[in-house]
Design brief:
binds adenosine-5'-diphosphate; about 25% helix; globular; alpha/beta; Rossmann fold; about 140 residues; binds magnesium ion; 7-stranded mixed beta sheet
């Protein structure tokens, strides 16, 4: 599986980031939480579009859920797309009820640092995206458990 082979990638374009995410999605069991880290405009939403593509979901449906906090897409399984940019308080995250749908699909969380420490008992994958000075993105994928 992709994750066992390699976990650090350089992406030179939006499309390459989507392809990395698509390959990740194809190797998933279907119930993982993917925590996405990276500054504004680093490519977290682009990465989720790639996950969607890998799950047979029309990627153009995927937009940043900054104002809605969570969007749910259906393809080969469900994709729960959460954006915690505007969330200040862990209680607000608890109100989303993520525990109730863990296991029902893939949960992708932008600003994953805000969800750290929550008792989400499933396989967690961390994806860190860093914009380099030349505009390329360094993408590190790490499976925690
Ligand atoms: N290698 C790359 N990977 C991902 N996005 C890239 C890349 N190079 C440039 N971009 C651009 O960076 C922006 C990333 O936006 P977005 O995914 O919404 O960021 P975030 O969700 O992290 O705030 C897009 O405009 C995209 O076209
Ligand atoms: Mg985003």
């Amino acid at each position: 599986m992709l994750l066992n082979m390699k976990n650090s990638f350089i992406s030179k374009s939006e499309e390459e980031t989507k392809e990395i995410a698509e390959a990740l999605a194809e190797g998933l069991r279907g119930d993982e939480v993917i925590l996405l880290y990276g500054s504004l405009a680093s490519g977290k939403t682009v990465f989720v579009k790639g996950l969607a593509r890998g799950m047979g979901i029309n990627e153009s449906l995927v937009s940043s859920p900054t104002f809605t906090i969570m969007n749910i897409y259906s393809g080969k399984g469900l994709l729960f797309h959460i954006d915690l940019y505007r969330v200040e308080d862990k209680k607000e995250i608890e109100l989303l009820g993520v525990e109730d749908f863990l296991g029902m699909g893939i949960v992708a969380v932008e600003w994953g640092e805000k969800a750290e420490g929550l008792p989400w008992s499933t396989r967690i994958i961390k994806v860190k995206i860093k914009e380099e000075e030349n505009g390329e993105r360094k993408i590190e994928i790490k499976r925690l458990n």
